[in-house]
């Protein structure tokens, strides 16, 4: 493995045209996340946090600036996002505010599905999904449908799904916003454990000041920039 950061954002910028002019959703953001690092992203609503994750996660194209993954430049203003689909699938796991599990699939099937999409044979996918759920203390929920799980359990299944393909980078956008404080803490501790034990680089957008002790570093956004 190279010593390059897992994620390196360089001058990331995203402008949207709007009626009143241009919205500078993200305005020249640069920072790195190393393997094993858990970084908290804080900042008021509208400060560009989600836009940053969308650009870093290769779901949107920057207006300017670059995204590097593992020392390789993968996204910039001229890139075609379609060509980044395989990179995204292999190298990035996403967790959003709502777990968005498929309601008619059990927990284990939800996790296995993301492996099958990446061409893992179904029996292997199921086996791997079970091991992941075990590792996240969800073995007893493997065969439950999402509606039978608590919000915290659903979100942990969503984390298992994000981890399924072993991505070096996890991006989470307010993953605990819909959870009570005890369950929120559990999910944050899970991110901490993943970063420490698997060496995954994890960026979590959150408003919850109670989780700050778990982060290696906190980045604060304001008006599309990193607050100094
Ligand atoms: N697709 C879009 N079109 C126009 N403006 C957008 C779009 N997405 C985000 N914005 C604007 O960009 C700014 C940053 O939004 P966002 O990244 O969602 O902030 P946060 O996640 O910190 O709340 C806001 O002013 C928002 O209204
Ligand atoms: Mg947001």
TrEMBL record:
GO MF entry, a single one: ATP binding
GO CC term (a single one): plasma membrane
One Pfam family here: ABC_tran
Ranges for domain ABC transporter: 7-228
Family listed: Belongs to the ABC transporter superfamily.
InterPro entries: AAA+_ATPase, ABC_transporter-like_ATP-bd, ABC_transporter-like_CS, ABC_transpr_LolD-like, MacB-like_ATP-bd, P-loop_NTPase
Keyword Nucleotide-binding found: yes
Gene3D superfamilies: P-loop containing nucleotide triphosphate hydrolases
SMART domains: AAA (SM00382)
Protein keywords: ATP-binding, Nucleotide-binding, Transport
Designated name of the protein: ABC transporter ATP-binding protein
Keyword ATP-binding: yes
């Amino acid at each position: 493995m190279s010593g390059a950061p897992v994620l390196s954002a360089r001058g990331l910028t995203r402008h949207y045209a709007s009626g009143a002019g241009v919205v500078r959703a993200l305005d020249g953001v640069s920072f790195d996340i190393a393997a094993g690092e858990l970084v908290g992203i804080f900042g008021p609503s509208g400060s560009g946090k989600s836009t940053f994750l969308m650009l870093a996660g290769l779901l949107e194209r920057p207006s300017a600036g670059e995204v590097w993954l593992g020392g390789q430049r993968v996204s910039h203003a001229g890139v075609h996002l379609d060509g980044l689909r395989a990179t995204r699938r292999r190298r990035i796991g996403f967790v959003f505010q709502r777990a968005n599990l498929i309601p008619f699939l059990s927990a284990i099937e939800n996790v296995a599905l993301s492996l099958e999409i990446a061409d893992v044979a179904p029996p292997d996918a199921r086996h791997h999904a079970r091991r992941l759920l075990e590792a996240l203390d969800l073995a007893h929920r493997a065969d439950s449908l999402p509606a039978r799980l608590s919000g915290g359990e659903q979100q942990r299944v969503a984390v298992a799904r994000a981890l399924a393909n072993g991505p070096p980078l996890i991006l989470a956008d307010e993953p605990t916003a819909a959870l009570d404080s005890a369950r929120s803490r559990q999910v944050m501790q899970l991110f901490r454990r993943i970063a420490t034990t698997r060496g995954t680089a994890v960026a979590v957008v959150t408003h919850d000041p109670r989780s700050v002790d778990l982060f290696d570093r906190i980045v604060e956004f304001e008006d599309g920039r990193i607050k100094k």
